[in-house]
Inverse folding.
């Protein structure tokens, strides 16, 4: 079981994760999507594809680009499609 916590709230509670480069990628079904807002930030990874970033918003406080996902990952990591990973102070354990 993996939990992603930020600002006193559980952002994800996942039994089904995929670990890539040490990051837990949680299924969308395990993520509290009401706490996530799309960001304009994207980043290109040479072997995973283009990551889209999300803001984590709890109690009116925003953690910009604290989560990301790959809507169209490259074939080598196709299993992480639309799975959400966290960083920037979000505690994942």
């Amino acid at each position: 079981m993996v939990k992603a916590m930020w600002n006193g709230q559980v952002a994800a509670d996942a039994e089904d994760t995929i670990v890539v480069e040490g990051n837990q990628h949680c299924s969308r079904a395990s993520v509290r999507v009401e706490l996530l807002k799309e960001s304009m930030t994207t980043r290109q990874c040479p072997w995973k594809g283009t990551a889209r970033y999300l803001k984590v918003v709890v109690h009116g406080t925003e953690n910009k680009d604290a989560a990301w996902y790959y809507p169209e990952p490259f074939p080598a990591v196709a299993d992480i499609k639309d799975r959400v990973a966290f960083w920037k102070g979000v505690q994942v354990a």
Remarks:
- The chain has a mean pLDDT of 97.
- Residues 3 and 13 are 5 Å apart (CA to CA).
- Strands lie at 2-6, 9-14, 17-20, 23-26, 36-45, 49-58, 61-69, 85-86, 91-92.
- The longest strand covers residues 36-45.
